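Prompt: I keep going back and forth on a fold encoding question. Comparing notes only helps if you start from a blank page. Show me how you would write down a chain together with its backbone fold. Please set it down just below, with no commentary around it:
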Amino acid sequence: MDKIQKLAIGSIFIGAVVFALKIAAYFLTGSIALYSDALESIINLVTAVAAFLAVRVSAQPADKNHPYGHHKVEYFSAVLEGVLIIVAAMMILREAYSAFAQPRTLDMPLEGLGVNALASFVNAAWSWILIREGRRMRSPALAADGRHLLTDVYTSVGVLAGLLFVPLTGWQWLDPAMAAVVAVNILWSGWGLMKESIGGLMDQAVPERTLTRVREVIALNAEGAIEAHDLRTRHAGRVTFIDFHLVVPGAMSVTDAHDICDRLERALKSEIDDALITIHVEPDDKAKHAGIVVLS
């Protein structure tokens, strides 16, 4: 079991602990805002399980039916998380509307807020770990899970700040108002998460900064060739696919052309982790004079 899968299992455990704390806070207070916080934690737990299954499948090697690997499965997990976030937001809005119509008095507010604050602290620490490691290991599922947890932390802090005023002011409407704010915030989070994941499923190119670096590496390490053109890139989970056409002198031997390709692959893989590179070698009459100029 690799580190990504271990982190995914850790998310399931943390999700269960945080949900238990937040549901306890809700039962202590009867707060709709804290109920919304607990409901989002159920979503966190479900998506943590989905993320674990996704990273487990994505780690499987390429096979006959999936020659390019199983990396894209992580995007499905992230899309599922976005959908569940939106469903949770709709449920929260419904409860907030009911609480506006029939305001209720909070019980044991300070004790409940203290338990909820502890849950938020646990979430904050774990989200920081997931985001850092998800980016470092280029795992969309882990990074998405971390960003979702971080959003949960922000909303929890907002809820706690708002509910502190309820016992001080007697304004019971603050409780459903904070729940509605939580719902709107996680709706926005869910939309952003789905948008990013769909980009991965649609073979979106690497960021412009990375693309510029790829061009530079090719130009600096293709000595002996004439040019490179038709460069294409895409992401699939942790893997970056790079393919391009390399123009060489027509009289160059296959062995020499192959040596240039090997040199390019080593240079690109040292610059970009988990790169999968395809190079199509062409003779000089195929030059387009509009691609990457080789720097000799």
Q: What stands out?
A: The chain is about 70% helix and 10% strand. The chain has two domains: 3-201, 208-293. The longest strand covers residues 227-236.
